[in-house]
Prior knowledge:
Shape of chain C: globular
Distance between the termini of chain C: 54 Å
Number of strands of chain C: 2
Largest sheet of chain C: 2 strands, antiparallel
Strand content of chain C: under 5%
Structural class of chain C: mainly alpha
Helix content of chain B: 10-25%
Largest sheet of chain B: 3 strands, antiparallel
Number of helices of chain B: 2
Number of helices of chain C: 13
Oligomer: heterotrimer
Distance between the termini of chain B: 61 Å
Structural class of chain B: alpha+beta
Helix content of chain C: 55-70%
Order of helices and strands of chain B: EEHEH
Radius of gyration of chain C: 21 Å
Amino acid sequence: xxxxxxxxxxxxxxxxxxxxxxxxxxxxxxxxxxxxxxxxxxxxxxxxxxxxxxxxxxxxxxxxxxxxxxxxxxxxxxxxxxxxxxxxxxxxxxxxxxxxxxxxxxxxxxxxxxxxxxxxxxxxxxxxxxxxxxxxxxxxxxxxxxxxxxxxxxxxxxxxxxxxxxxxxxxxxxxxxxxxxxxxxxxxxxxxxxxxxxxxxxxxxxxxxxxxxxxxxxxxxxxxxxxxxxxxxxxxxxxxxxxxxx
Amino acid sequence: xxxxxxxxxxxxxxxxxxxxxxxxxxxxxxxxxxxxxxxxxxxxxxxxxxxxxxxxxxxxxxxxxxxxxxxxxxxxxxxxxxxxxxxxxxxxx
Amino acid sequence: xxxxxxxxxxxxxxxxxxxxxxxxxxxxxxxxxxxxxxxxxxxxxxxxxxxxxxxxxxxxxxxxxxxxxxxxxxxxxxxxxxxxxxxxxxxxxxxxxxxxxxxxxxxxxxxxxxxxxxxxxxxxxxxxxxxxxxxxxxxxxxxxxxxxxxxxxxxxxxxxxxxxxxxxxxxxxxxxxxxxxxxxxxxxxxxxxxxxxxxxxxxxxxxxxxxxxxxxxxxxxxxxxxxxxxxxxxxxxxxxxxxxxxxxxxxxxxxxxxxxxxxxxxxxxxxxxxxxxxxxxxxxxxxxxxxxxxxxxxxxxxxxxxxxx
Lengths: 246, 93, 309
């Protein structure tokens, strides 16, 4: 029974981050970027549907029941992805931290003993390689751009750093999935992640934040205040018209 | 005015054709222009290869020279296969 | 022949005008006004639908709407590019939009109040836009005509997804069907206004038709839209909010009532329900994005220098 829970972690990350990115649609800093951000949102939404679709098959619910009829405490995404867009620097810092991790994770999962997981991960990996490439480009441009962009980028990195620890947190479920060859050892991803982030930050003239106290809880359903608002908006129609088809 | 420069985008579709002009966009540098071109002009699986070039770097022929540049070619029909008469019985020619 | 006569002769013979070709100043100015207005409409048009991306009622609908609103941004971009070939910068066009000097389609000043409005926009607003755009694929200015061809190709799914939303609602619960009817009630007349004033009232029509910037008259396009849309609405089981709407066998067209031109004029002049909100949102996006655009440019300059050194 732990596999569906594991799939929710994967699916909810993609779903909630996609929802956040979709808030930018129509409000990007330049038309080209508006279009690009939406592509990332669409990729993640597609991934979410694959993960939730699989989780739903195992539990007798469909992707929409999982997305629209669970309360915040049942969501399993990490805290990082539910953090608000704030400005473009925060959005890109969040994206960069997530994408570097996401790429490492999907690479492992593409070799999962669960073929379905392996297949989804392999497809998603190609999309995420591009997401990471783009996010990296922006970290470099904002970090090493103007005084203002550097300050904003550094601030965003500092603000979000405490939400990165949870990405590597091993708990009983992760351990079980790792043992079964279905999941992977998240703790082992930390070093390559930190190396990559540090390398890009150096090039971008940014400081790697020193904060060591990390927030956690999202993976167990204990979220920040933000998720409730995300769901209030996202789930409104399904909640207001129970049972209706759309 | 601090506008990003304009770039022209050329995309090669999957059918083994040459790159074709797809349109233009704004980008601060070549790398971003390439990214933006991918996101703007290949959303529907239109391409397998992209070129970008700054619009300002393109040298174009001038319309006033159209006569001297292109009309002389129009009077050389012998460059086209239909110029020649070949009997129907002769095949593979 | 004078340059202007030569120019008109080319247009009459159906030869496309290209960016570096001679063109009368009036042609250039009219095109810039028309194309930029069209581009602004796409970009402002992202807002009323964008409203509902985060509230779409299923993941499938969310993906479709996201892709559609993204397409609108793309179409704005193609059109700005087409206008730029006439020697005006995108920056300038955006400044004109923000100052209120340039207009955009009045339809986007109406609010999207329910999910059914997303269906109505796709079905009616995109339906009306496509009729106009298909005609413009034949316009005399090459870059504009080519942008239109690309846009028409991409838009073909927009109208269908809208109709599918309404079809689902009409086959759904009583509340859903009422939602669909309410959306038609509110969007029908503004959609008819999209084709602009009557031909007799239209200020730029005659010259634009001669220049093949305008291909079919406002009233003819509007009639075409009504004729094709009414049976689609009847299939949904919805009622059009026009007591004068009826088939006229003698004309072979639907007759319909008169548009409230006072409302039309007021919405264009800035008094629609959402004019201020829409413009405010566009200005905010542009202003809040300024530091991002500057940073990317500064980075490019630094690295250009470093590469050259």
